[in-house]
Amino acid sequence: MPVLEIIQLGHPLLRSSAQLVDNIQDQNIQNLIDNLIATVGQANGVGIAAPQVAESYQLFIVASRPNLRYPNAPTMQPTAMINPQVLAHSSEVVKGWEGCLSIPEIRGYVPRYEAIEIEYTDRNGKLQKQELTDFVARIFQHEYDHLNGIVFLDRLESTHDIITEQEYQKRIVGT
Ligand code: ZN
Prior knowledge:
The chain has helices spanning 27-42, 134-146, 165-173, and strands spanning 47-49, 59-62, 79-89, 93-100, 103-113, 115-121, 127-133, 162-164. By secondary structure, the protein is of the alpha+beta class. It has a single domain (12-173), classed as Peptide Deformylase (Alpha-Beta Complex). The strands form 2 sheets. The chain has a 5-stranded antiparallel β-sheet with strand order 1-2-3-6-7, sandwiched between helices.
């Protein structure tokens, strides 16, 4: 499966709203899902949104697993979430470190809802409802933002919450 080119901050599609997927069974959409899963795996990511490969659809992959960029991530099957919605969220907000394949070499300490109730259509066209918590809830919120042209930098409380990848590896992963 081909690994797709990931567009970088500055590309206008990262600042655009994505369109709904109306035909999930379309071969182009199914191929896009397979290629996104291959791409996020190869890039050591835990999630990727279709707009990041210049396909402006409301579709992303959540693929949490421990890897070089996120050694403490929980393991799950890569899951395609299509036309996702946030139905409800906790009042509690927690800060955690995030990076982005479209914003290389930096990390931010980003506030996110601790728990969310979500709904999406899976790649077989079935509506799924789930409650997500902690790191997986964080991934969902990060990817969901990409569908609306928002990146994690927009969510920071302070520019002091940005550090380089090198310092992150030294100070955060190492501790
Ligand atoms: Zn991202």
